[in-house]
Structures are given as C-alpha cells and as structure tokens.
Design goal:
Layout (H helix, E strand, L loop, with lengths): L1 E3 L24 H13 L8 E5 L6 E3 L4 E4 L3 E4 L5 E6 L3 E7 L4 E7 L1 H6 L1 H11 L6 E4 L9 E2 L1 H10 L2 H7 E4 L2 E4 L1 H11 L3 E4 L13 H4 L5 E6 L2
Parallel strand pairs: 2-4, 2-6, 3-5, 9-13
Antiparallel strand pairs: 1-14, 5-8, 6-14, 7-8, 7-9, 10-12, 11-12
Helix pairs in contact: 5-6
The structure holds zinc ion.
Length: 229
C-alpha cells in the first residue's frame, strides 16, 4: 500500500497547518507525532512501524526491518512486513517503489543533487539485491520546472553528472533563465532502468494544498509512504 499526504487532516497549526510530518522544521513535537500516527494508518501500519530517513541529498541507502529513524540516507529499502517507509519533501521529489510479488519496497527523497548523485539507481540496486525483479514507481508531488529557477552554474554542474538523456529534460536554459525539472530527471532515470512509473501530478509551489519550501521557507513537509501490508 502507498499513500501521498498533503496539508489536510493533521493536528499542526500556523505555518505547519496541518499534516506536517517532519520533526526538524520547528513544529510542535506532539503535533508531529499525532500527524505521523494518522498518516501511517493510511498504509495500514502502526506508528511504531514507521521508518523515517534523515535525508542529506546523497545516494546512501538504508535497509530497514523495523520502524525508527535512519540518519544520513536518502532512500530506505525493506523486505519486511508491518513497517512503513516515509520519504519527506516540500519541493524535492518523494517517490515510492515496490515489487509487490517479491515483497520489496522503497521510499526515496530526491532533489537536484539526488538526481546528480544517482539515489534512484542506488535504491533500485538495493531492492534487486533483496530479490526485487519487477519494480513499479510512484513519483509524488514536487516543484515544477517553471517554479524552480536556479543559477546557471547549477544546470551546468548537473549536466556534468548525468547522461544526456537525463540532463536533456532536467536542465533547462533559455533567455528567461535556467531551471531544473527534478521530476522529469527522476522520471527519465527510472525509464532508463526499465521501471514503470506513475505520477501524483501536482506542483508544490503552486498548490496551496501542499507544503512548499520555496514558497514559504518556514513550513512543514508532506510525505510519500509505502508498506507491504
Ligand atoms: Zn510550479
């Protein structure tokens, strides 16, 4: 089971209104705990079974068999029942992956640095190590290219890190400036690895139903979650 959360349905107030799932953004800890309890129920798991990553915009992968916090990774992979994997984001791309038959799941956090670092490929390799064969992906809400202008040096840098099939869609430079389409980059990376991909199509910056760091700076995080349950 997988789920994508937005702002609605939580206990947080003010700029975190209301279903903020991140404990590191200044929100009330009790409210975040309640929000996580509600969210993880969407994928049929208790809050003790929720595995959360401390993302660092790298390509390290954590393999987990129980709930809890894993620091320093941008992907969690599991073959265990009764747990849920959570990827938090507010403009970056959160995505979940599964081979339902093999019972191997993953959640990934991927911004432009993650596209360059290859976190999606790293997560898929770990899934295959655990027996996954036929993997599908769901890419969650993220900022669109139009809303994500960047310094020209950033598209130049990313071009050096990824194949032209990826940079051709992810790096956009024209008279109006430079932009990065992280979702498109992730999608092509998945396609190049033979993964069937579905999308939750929404721009975090444009939708008031979603948290956006670029729009609001001090704000909450939504999530993509997956479980085997
Ligand atoms: Zn947008």
């Amino acid at each position: 089971m997988w789920a994508a959360t937005g702002r609605d349905g939580g206990a947080s107030t003010g700029v975190y209104q209301s279903l903020n799932l991140a404990e590191y953004v200044g929100d009330d800890a009790g409210a975040v705990a309640e929000n996580r309890r509600r969210a993880v129920g969407l994928v049929g798991v208790g809050v003790d079974g929720l595995a959360v990553m401390g993302a660092v915009h790298g390509a390290s992968v954590g393999v987990v068999s129980c709930g809890g916090f894993v620091a320093g990774v941008d992907a969690l992979v599991s073959a265990s029942k009764g747990i849920a994997l959570l990827a938090l984001a507010a403009d970056c791309v959160p995505l979940v992956l599964a081979d339902a038959r093999a019972g191997v799941i993953a959640a990934v956090h991927c911004g432009w640095r993650g596209v360059g670092a290859g976190v999606v490929a790293a997560a898929l390799a770990t899934m295959r190590d655990l027996g996954a064969v036929s993997i599908e992906a769901v890419v969650g809400p993220a900022i669109c290219a139009r809303c994500y202008p960047v310094p020209a040096e950033r598209t130049e840098y990313l071009r050096e890190l990824v194949p032209t099939e990826v940079s051709g869609v992810a790096c956009i430079d024209h008279a109006g400036g430079s932009f990065i389409d992280v979702r498109a980059g992730v999608s092509v990376q998945l396609a190049l690895l033979g993964i069937e991909t579905h999308h939750v199509n929404a721009c975090t910056n444009e939708s008031t139903d979603l948290f956006s760091y670029r729009r609001d700076t001090v704000t909450g995080r939504q999530g993509m979650m997956i479980s085997r349950a």
